[in-house]
Hints:
Elements: H1 6-11, E1 19-24, H2 29-38, E2 46-50, E3 69-71, H3 77-88, E4 94-97, H4 100-107, H5 109-126, E5 129-135, H6 140-149, E6 152-160, E7 165-172, E8 184-189, E9 192-197, E10 200-202, H7 209-221, E11 226-230, H8 239-248, H9 253-259, H10 264-277, E12 280-284, H11 299-304, H12 309-321, H13 328-343, H14 351-380, H15 394-406, E13 411-416, E14 419-424, H16 441-455, E15 459-465, E16 474-480
Parallel strand pairs: 1-5, 1-6, 2-3, 2-4, 4-5
Antiparallel strand pairs: 6-7, 7-8, 8-9, 9-10, 11-12, 13-14, 14-16, 15-16
Helix pairs in contact: 3-5, 4-5, 5-6, 7-10, 8-14, 12-15, 14-16, 15-16
Amino acid sequence: MVTGHGVFDEIMDITFGSTILSLDETFSEGRDFLSVLLQGISDIPVYEVAKKPVLRNFQTLPLDEQQNEIIIEGMPPTSVGEAVEKKRQEGKAIFIHTYLPDLLIRYGGDNVLKIIERWKSSIQEHNTIEFFLLPRKVFAEAEGKIFSLVDGVIDFKIVSSADSYLHVFTPMRSCKTEFNMSRFEYSIEENKLLIKFRGRFSDHVSTNKEEIQALMKFISENSQSLYVKQGHIQPNLPVQERLLLSQVLDHRVSDSLTLLFDRSESLLKKLAEWNSDGFIEFLKMEAKKEEPIKTKLGLKSRIALTIPSWMSTRLIMWGGLSSYRVPAQAYLMRRKGDEAFYSAFFPPSDKGHQEVTLERIEEFLQDIATRRVTEDVIRRLGEDPRNLLDIKYVPKIIGLMLSSGYGVKPRVSKVNADLYQIDVSDCPICYESRSDKPVCQSLTGAITGNASVCFKRKVNTEETNCIAKGDDRCTFLLRLQ
């Protein structure tokens, strides 16, 4: 989706056929934001599906005159579905659903979830983008389930600063990888949306596109001989972008592009922008010779992928790779140190953002660390980490990584063509932990990193159940995109 808002389009990656959940404080921030954001779209119809006429920036017409509001007051869910489906069948469109609280009160969370689940296939079939608006924590149980069902989330908050209140939004999924879980301030002035990006409020990204594209081409063509070093300007970047920068510093560009193949294009763009801004410099080195990809697996690997998992684990251990197991107690001690370290860099007044950031930092770093370890293990097994494995081996590979790396006994099952469920009843990460939300970001990141390297697909992993919450096992959903 291209909204015409340069900054929003730079941050987000919302494709047609997507469902997006908007969470906010007062059930007005999300509607205000989307109303101003989408008012400039002229080639695609934008509809607001509402209980009563509340539209502010879209044209209002009677229902039989192709109106941009669909009023559903008093309608049962089936009638709501029929009214929306009629508009979907007309072609590409954007829908903003503002009536969920009313349906949740009248029909209950389970019924509303079934409706949204049925709609998802129609949304994908008709290539629409649909935003579902919900006030945060008012319908907590339903919110959590809808959160896991939709393709992306935009979380709107009002936070206090030294002498004022700030409006911020945080994208989760359906955005560029480097901006996932990053917080952006915004303001609406004279019916114009301004987002703080690279230190200033704007509705456009001020970069010379031709210069950046030329630099991207140069970096790509010379990736084998370019080494990334810290630049002369201290970067002032969002947390997620700073983390990404930290992982490519002091590495050859080609190695980083291989490691982060699923975001190589966006990484190339970031490298060009950072270099243009003075955040990084390139050191020219002797080019590394690139060998042809070895696609045929060796005998040991073929055997490991066909025998029972417990035998494969022992085979790997006998291969001298037992040092990769993570002692649970050592991990828990390290995590406490991480919490103390990161707490020093976030103000106490921003505690909620601090906690979210720590979780995302841990998941991101574990993702990267597992990618590096997985590449190293593959090399030590005599294989080529650039090789693409058949997705039929997903249960075996994920099971081996968790059992040999963490000493657990996972159960990996295939839900559908691209979705897998991983159950861990002996999780060492939430050992003796108590929390109201999942805490095993280390395993989430490890699953994502391992699957990304082995299957060369963009991967999303989410923990839905956690022993720390009182569940009988930790459950992870692995989605190959």
